[in-house]
């Protein structure tokens, strides 16, 4: 009685539909643009416009070629941005800026293109970290409405709460401690040192990590990303059209959405027992791994993994969520350079949110596209062709480079 | 008792809970030193957070029922960084998630217990902290009568 059920195989599994089969590799990322850092003299609007121009230039498309626009809530609204750009579109949409909604946003864009509702959709994002008047400014103080379980009256503030309380349960269930997060933070910093755009490029050793102060124990300062300003733009168009663009196309091969509900409490892996979650050892079902079937690949084919790492434990959760290892095995998985550039599964090759910077994750998706193109220079994963963006909440985008 | 959307106690700088209209029986219960949550008339399930329908069976028929007030620490974290001046005087402090014997888990603090002694599996019992003239906050404290049973 009174169990909020975990559905398992009750919805007929995850059969690949005819449309999904036809959709594979039919849309592509054709242009990317990004600004990341501190821009005290700019607004969220002007950062968004800079990124849009960079992405246009990257793609070789003209402003008039863009007939779809999606923006997210942290910056200006879609109509203000279009007004500023002098651009009319026939597909406009506005969503919520949280990192978990970025790959679904790319999915909307790809579906809009595939359905002929737009020929090229630009997803544009601009953000000023501490600007006044943005929709996200008061979000960490919401009680009962916020995404990470914030309870201000109890001093349970900030997203670090959700990540720390999830990590605590993970260590309780599977053993280990904060020390198991060190190889993640150190690896991503190594990657950032090869990335001229990264915000944090000073060296970090395991010892530096262990000396880092507690913020919300079991998380240290170096387990948490910083917030910065920035702008990003990703242009999605048809595969056919992308082949005529300036850079090689990055095909969208497979995708799946955010899994949500009481068993998916935010910043936790299912089964950890955070808030009202049940306690069990989570293993993904075929339904949980739909995007591999859509792309016609398995985990073994993934050349690089890009994942949302606002807090380091999320990397452990993503690895187990997508079955790169078994329950409780991610602590072992991330050791000994396995997730570094020349390792078995390079992760967050730009340095991730932890070291490259925080653009609500858009910088992660842009890195995934650039890795699939093979244009990452010193941090390029050799021969990377399949690059997956996949996160602990189950959302996934599988990119395939045209090479 | 009335709903409240006041975020901060101006006198102390302490963050206050928002009191939604549908939660009033719960808050009135806390004022009277009783932990009251919803129980479904159809499936007899209890739940938290407070909501308009039973998340187990979707029945809208429920009664406010007094809980035992006893439970176990299921999870906790320790804040070392203070994000408000009020919290500066309190770090390090623990935030715990208590699993009530009736099932639901609640996020609170732990009173009368040094931070170093907080741990998963510790039996706790409800405590009531009057934080303004109107609002009593649910808290927990170690249950000194309970035996230490292993918790997963």
Structure description:
The complex is a heterodimer of chains A (403) and B (152). Chain A has a nine-stranded mixed beta sheet. Chain A has a two-stranded antiparallel ribbon with strand order 5-6. In chain A, strand 5 and strand 6 form a beta hairpin. The radius of gyration of chain A is 20 Å and the shape is globular. Chain A has 403 residues and is an alpha/beta fold. Chain A contains 13 helices and eleven strands. The relative contact order of chain A is 0.18. The longest helix of chain B has 8 residues, at 24-31. Chain B is built from two helices and eight strands. Helices cover 8% and strands 32% of the residues of chain B. Chain B has helices spanning 24-31, 85-88, and strands at 36-40, 46-47, 62-66, 70-79, 93-100, 105-108, 123-130, 136-142. The chains are: A alpha/beta (403), B mainly beta (152). Chain A binds chain B through residues 1-4, 141, 143-144, 149, 151-158, 161, 164-165, 168-169, 172-173, 213-218, 262, 273-276, 279, and chain B through 7, 14-18, 20, 40, 43-49, 54-57, 74-81, 83-84, 87, 90, 92-93, 95, 97, 103-105, 107-109, 120, 131, 137, 152. Strand 5 (214-217) of chain A pairs antiparallel with strand 4 (70-79) of chain B, so a sheet runs across the interface.
List keywords for this structure.
heterodimer; A: alpha/beta; Peroxisomal Thiolase, Chain A, domain 1; two-stranded antiparallel sheet; 13 helices; disordered N terminus; B: 152 residues; mainly beta; five-stranded antiparallel β-sheet; 8% helix
């Amino acid at each position: 009685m009174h169990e909020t059920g975990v559905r398992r195989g009750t919805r007929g599994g995850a059969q690949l539909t005819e449309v999904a089969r036809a959709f594979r590799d039919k849309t592509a990322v054709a242009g990317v643009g990004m600004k990341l850092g501190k821009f005290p003299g700019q607004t969220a609007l002007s950062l968004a416009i800079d990124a849009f121009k960079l992405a246009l230039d990257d793609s070789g498309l003209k402003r008039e070629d863009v007939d779809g626009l999606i923006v997210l809530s942290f910056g200006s609204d879609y109509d203000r941005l279009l007004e500023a750009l002098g651009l009319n579109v026939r597909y406009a949409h506005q969503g919520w800026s949280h990192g978990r909604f970025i790959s679904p946003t790319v999915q909307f864009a790809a579906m809009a293109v595939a359905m002929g509702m737009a020929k090229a959709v630009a997803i544009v994002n601009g953000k000023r970290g501490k600007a006044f008047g943005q929709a996200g400014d008061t979000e960490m103080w919401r009680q009962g409405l916020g995404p990470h379980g914030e309870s201000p009256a109890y001093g349970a503030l900030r997203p670090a709460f959700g990540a720390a309380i999830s990590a605590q349960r993970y260590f309780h269930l599977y053993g280990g401690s904060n020390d198991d997060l060190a190889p993640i933070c150190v690896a991503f910093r190594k990657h950032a040192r090869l990335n001229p755009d990264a915000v944090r490029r000073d060296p970090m050793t395991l010892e530096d990590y262990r000396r880092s102060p507690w913020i919300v124990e079991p998380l240290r300062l170096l387990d948490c990303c910083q917030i910065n300003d920035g702008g990003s733009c990703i242009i999605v168009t048809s595969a056919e059209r992308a082949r005529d663009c300036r850079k090689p196309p990055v095909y969208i091969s497979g995708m799946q959405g955010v899994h949500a509900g009481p068993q998916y409490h935010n910043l936790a892996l299912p089964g950890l027992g955070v808030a009202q979650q049940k306690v069990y050892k989570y293993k993904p079902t075929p339904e949980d791994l739909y995007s591999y079937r859509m792309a016609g690949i398995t985990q073994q084919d993934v050349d690089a993994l890009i994942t949302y790492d606002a807090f380091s434990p999320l990397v452990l959760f993503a690895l187990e969520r997508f079955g790169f290892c078994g329950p409780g095995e991610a602590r072992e998985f991330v050791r000994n350079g396995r997730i570094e550039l020349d390792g078995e599964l390079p992760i967050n090759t730009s340095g991730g949110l932890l070291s490259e910077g925080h653009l609500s994750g858009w910088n992660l998706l842009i890195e995934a596209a650039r890795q699939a193109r093979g244009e990452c220079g010193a941090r390029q994963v050799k021969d990377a062709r399949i690059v997956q963006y996949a996160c602990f909440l189950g959302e996934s985008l599988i990119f395939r480079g045209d090479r | 008792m009335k709903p409240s959307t006041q975020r901060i106690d101006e006198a102390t700088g302490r963050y206050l809970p928002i009191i939604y209209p549908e939660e009033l029986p719960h808050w009135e219960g806390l004022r009277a030193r009783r932990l009251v949550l919803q129980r479904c008339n159809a499936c007899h399930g209890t739940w938290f957070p407070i909501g308009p329908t039973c998340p187990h069976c979707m029945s809208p028929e429920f009664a406010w029922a007094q809980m035992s007030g006893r439970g176990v620490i299921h999870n906790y974290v320790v804040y070392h960084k203070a994000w408000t001046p009020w919290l500066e005087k309190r770090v390090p402090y623990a935030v715990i998630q208590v699993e009530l014997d009736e099932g639901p888990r609640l996020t609170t603090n732990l009173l009368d217990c040094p931070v170093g002694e907080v741990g998963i599996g510790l039996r706790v019992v409800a405590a009531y902290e009057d934080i303004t003239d109107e609002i009593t906050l649910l808290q927990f404290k170690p249950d000194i009568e309970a035996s230490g049973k292993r918790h997963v």
